[in-house]
Design goal:
Blueprint: E1 3-14, E2 20-32, E3 37-41, H1 48-55, E4 63-68, H2 79-88, E5 89-92, H3 96-99, H4 106-111, H5 122-135, H6 140-143, H7 153-167, E6 171-175, H8 183-200, E7 203-208, H9 211-217, E8 220-225, E9 228-233, H10 235-240, H11 245-253, H12 256-262
Parallel strand pairs: 3-7, 3-8, 5-6, 6-7
Antiparallel strand pairs: 1-2, 1-4, 8-9
This protein binds adenosine-5'-triphosphate (ATP) and magnesium ion.
């Protein structure tokens, strides 16, 4: 087992005078095996990003635990231990613009990953950066030397995926990673994740609103609603025999063409 999440919860307190509690994530539990591709599907505000931020050790859980390879990332404090964790568990964010420093050129954004890797030779670093860009379908000369705002949304998302090719993490948490990529190149980006899985045994938590997409790419689907996982199963179980009424509603949103095609 690579990752064990047990009773993970997050409550935000909002408001200054009249304080209000928002139960963004409520007692979420699941396990992920090496090389498994899991989708976390739910509507906006269901708690998907909050869950991923707790696993990525960015947001402290209110209660519950995250155990990765037997270690609790929230018990790690030394810089070497944190570097180990962030090398192994890497996030691709919903809005790539927000996670890039706008003052850094693409080169620097990619070279930052070498802080987590033990590579000394400059020639090797340059080679690896160029290779990683080619892996995600970008020509190095079209993006190197440019600032994030000078790229398209899709190009920025590809840069984030290029970082995975440099790091080769054991677990990728990809939060709506293809939302800004046009439909014709989406399949190519999804293939990059499955190549990482096939070539390096990388596990993936793929976060999306789109149950149809999750059906195609996942080994297992978890349905999230109001901060809880209400149903989980293989893609066929979820699509053919949904148990929870919320899953049935999500299924209704899967484009009709696709349902006709698959006979659902
Ligand atoms: N820092 C915060 N402070 C207060 N409330 C927050 C904070 N972050 C998230 N929330 C609330 O927690 C709930 C879950 O948010 P979250 O971002 O996890 O949803 P999501 O499933 O990722 O949605 P989307 O699909 O729109 O990205 C929402 O009600 C949101 O308003
Ligand atoms: Mg989100």
């Amino acid at each position: 087992m690579l990752l064990k999440v047990k009773d993970l919860s997050k409550t935000f307190i909002v408001g200054l005078l009249r304080k209000k509690e928002i139960h963004a994530v409520r007692k979420v539990s699941f396990n992920i095996k090496k090389g498994e591709f899991i989708s976390l599907v739910g509507e906006s505000g269901s708690g998907k990003t909050t869950t991923s931020r707790m696993i990525l050790r960015i947001l402290k859980p209110s209660s519950g635990s995250v155990i990765f390879e037997g270690k609790d990332p929230w018990a790690l404090h030394k810089i070497e231990d944190l570097k180990w964790y962030w090398k192994q568990v890497h996030g691709i964010f919903q809005d790539p613009f927000a996670s890039f420093n706008p003052l850094y050129k693409v080169d620097r954004i990619l070279y930052q990953t070498f802080n987590l890797l033990n590579i000394e030779s400059d020639a090797e670093k340059e080679h690896l950066v160029k290779e990683s860009l080619k892996e995600v379908g970008l020509r190095p000369e079209e993006v190197l030397g440019r600032y994030p705002h000078e790229l398209s949304g899709g190009q920025r998302q590809r840069i984030m995926i290029a970082r995975c090719y440099l790091l080769k993490p054991k677990l990728i948490i990809a939060d709506e990673p293809i939302s800004m990529i046009d439909a014709s190149t989406r399949a190519g980006i999804l293939k990059l994740f499955s190549d990482l899985r096939n070539n390096y045994g990388t596990s993936v938590i793929f976060i999306t609103h789109d149950l149809g997409l999750a059906y195609y790419v996942s080994d297992r689907i978890m349905i999230m609603h109001n901060g809880s996982i209400v149903e989980e199963g293989t893609p066929d179980e979820i699509m053919e025999h949904p148990k929870h009424h919320y899953t049935m509603r999500l299924k209704e949103d899967v484009p009709l063409l696709y349902r006709k095609w698959k006979g659902f």
